[in-house]
Write a structure and sequence with these properties.
Blueprint lengths: L3 H12 L21 E5 L2 E4 L4 E3 L7 H4 L4 H11 L10 H13 L12 H16 L5 E3 L10 H8 L7 E3 L1
Length: 168
C-alpha cells in the first residue's frame, strides 16, 4: 500500500521542482523520501499517514514555545481579524520594536525583514555605513545544506577554498 506522503510527494513533483520547496527536504541523498506533516502540537508532529514524531527541527518559532501554543494561536487569530499583510507600516511593528529594545537594552534600533536575503542586504548596508567602506566580500555559493550550485557542493564537503570568494 502506498502512503499518503508518497502520493503527495509524487503529486508535488508535478508542480514543485524536486517535489519539495527546499532541496534538503527531499532526502534523496540518504535514500528516502519526505513525510508530509498534517498537524503539530507542542514538541510533536503528525504526518498525513498518522505517524507521530518528536520535532527535533523546531523551525521558526516552535523551538521556543512548541507548536501551536494556545497563547500564540489566540493572539494570531485575534490579529488576523484586523488583516494579515499590509505592505505598509503598522502600529504593531512599532510596538514589537519597542519591546525588543526594552528586553535587550544594548539594542537601540530594530530592522524587521521578511527573508534571509533582506537580512543580509541590511547587514551589508549597516556594515558599509559603519565602516565607510564601499566594497564587501561575499562567498560564492551557499554555506548551509542548500545545493544550488557546483561550487557550493565542493565547499560543503570540505573547508571552502579561497577561490570561493569574490569582491563585490
Amino acid at each position: 500500500m502506498t502512503s499518503r506522503s508518497s502520493e503527495l510527494f509524487r503529486a508535488a513533483h508535478q508542480r514543485i521542482p524536486g517535489g519539495v520547496n527546499s532541496p534538503v527536504r527531499a532526502l534523496r541523498n540518504v535514500g528516502g523520501e519526505p513525510f508530509f506533516v498534517d498537524r503539530a502540537a507542542g514538541s510533536k508532529i503528525w504526518d498525513v499517514d498518522g505517524n507521530e514524531y518528536v520535532d527535533y527541527v523546531g523551525s521558526w518559532g516552535p523551538a521556543i514555545l512548541g507548536h501551536a501554543p494556545k497563547v500564540v494561536v489566540d493572539a494570531v487569530r485575534e490579529a488576523a481579524t484586523r488583516g494579515l499583510s499590509f505592505g505598509v507600516p503598522n502600529p504593531l511593528e512599532v510596538e514589537m520594536a519597542e519591546l525588543i529594545c526594552q528586553w535587550f537594552p544594548s539594542i537601540e534600533k530594530v530592522r524587521m525583514v521578511n527573508s534571509g536575503t533582506e537580512a543580509a542586504m541590511s547587514c551589508i548596508r549597516l556594515a558599509r555605513g559603519f565602516t565607510g567602506r564601499d566594497k564587501t566580500a561575499r562567498a560564492i555559493g551557499e554555506w548551509r545544506a542548500h545545493p544550488w550550485n557546483a561550487r557550493q557542493r565542493r565547499c560543503a564537503a570540505s573547508v571552502c577554498r579561497p577561490d570561493n570568494f569574490a569582491a563585490v
